[in-house]
Automatic annotation (TrEMBL):
It holds the Pfam family 2OG-FeII_Oxy. GO terms for molecular function: metal ion binding; oxidoreductase activity. This is Fe2OG dioxygenase domain-containing protein. The keyword Iron applies.
């Protein structure tokens, strides 16, 4: 069908429509702050974007452009290597970091290749999703031999984007009317990762997706995309898929599931997907910011009262994460674990 393997073909209702409507995109927020009340104003712009879209772009974010360009360069050099070379750093059953080209989203294979690395090396995570199993496993990064500057460049980039992620976390706390550091302790042993995404040109872009529709499972995602475009988000008001316009050197920020839960549904973890095209390859670099494995995620008590009952029961971040990473790479009979599984009766 259309010259591509059936495993990549989306159900008809999930396939991208040929023409996407022209719309005003998600908010673009300038993070440079000046004058009195600057921080409050910035926090309030972020709060509005988190309520309405769950997505926004930031400029003047403090991550050096020169560093971002170096990471883009090593990413391209890595994905340009012969497949046998890339597979030397392949993900395996014991270590989920490294190269991978068989990810499935909602049980259809994504038209992409990825390289995953942990931000903290080592990272501590539960050994299994079983709630009674208390064993903790230690994970370390797998690195490719080539290009030689790959490891150092990626590590340097992770440190810079991490600073931005912590800054955003503070602004989001302020925007919820809470102290700036209210969420910071949840990230003392953060379990996040940086992913390099490579979307090769696809001969049948009307049938496949680079990443199928999904919500990010962590707290926050800080994404660099190149100038090709392809990321779309599902608008809350009418379910329409809205393209996110590339802005040079900007970052796309999205609220992920744990922040939706902490905010007790004030902020949304929005569904998004990636469309591919037949001419150009595309690169993107998401930084997934995840809490420590032992954090119990539940609506913040300051945001819960008689009028606003807790919408979720508490869940363990580590168990949730391990459950989901196990399922992302295989075809499953059922949908993988989502925060909806923890909805309380009051939220119905
Ligand atoms: C993801 C994702 C978007 C993109 O990797 O979770 O949504 O533009 N990526 O690559
Ligand atoms: Ni995503």
């Amino acid at each position: 069908m259309g010259g591509i393997d059936q495993v990549f073909v989306q159900e008809p209702e999930q396939r991208p429509k040929p023409s996407t409507i022209e719309v005003d995109g998600i908010p673009v927020i300038d993070m440079s702050v000046s004058g009195t009340g600057g921080i409050e104003k910035l926090a309030s712009e972020i709060g509005n974007a988190c309520r309405k879209w769950g997505f926004f772009q930031v400029i003047n974010h403090g991550v050096p452009l020169e560093l971002r360009q170096r990471v883009e360069k090593v990413a391209k050099a890595f994905f340009d290597l012969p497949i046998e070379e890339k597979r030397k750093a392949k993900r395996d059953d014991l270590n989920f970091t490294g190269y991978h080209d068989e990810e499935h989203t909602k049980n259809v294979r994504d038209w992409k290749e990825v390289f995953d690395m942990l931000i903290e090396d080592p990272t501590f995570l539960p050994a299994s999703p079983d709630p009674d199993d208390e064993e903790i496993r230690t994970y370390s990064n797998k690195w490719p031999e080539n290009p030689p500057e790959f490891r150092e460049t990626c590590q340097e980039y992770c440190r810079e984007v991490e600073k931005l992620a912590f800054k955003l976390l503070e602004l989001i706390s302020l925007s919820l009317g809470l102290p700036a550091n209210r969420l910071s302790d949840f990230f003392k042993h953060q379990t996040g990762m940086l992913r390099l995404n490579y979307y090769p040109p696809c001969p049948s872009p009307e049938l496949a997706l680079g990443v199928g529709r999904h919500r990010d499972g962590g707290a926050l995602t800080v994404l660099a995309q190149d100038d090709v475009g392809g990321l779309q988000i599902r608008r809350q008001s009418d379910g329409e898929w809205i393209p996110i316009k590339p802005i040079p050197n900007a970052y796309i920020i999205n609220i992920a599931d744990a922040l939706q839960v902490w905010s007790n549904d004030l902020y949304v973890s929005a569904e998004h997907r990636v469309v591919v095209n037949s001419e150009q390859e595309r690169f993107s670099i998401p930084f997934f910011f995840f809490p420590s494995h032992y954090v119990k995620v539940k609506p913040l008590e300051e945001l819960v009262n008689e009028q606003n009952p807790a919408m979720y029961k508490e869940y363990s971040w580590g168990k949730y994460y391990i459950n989901r990473t196990g399922s992302n790479y295989k075809k499953l009979e059922a949908e993988n674990l989502q925060i909806d599984h923890f909805k309380t009766p009051e939220s119905e």
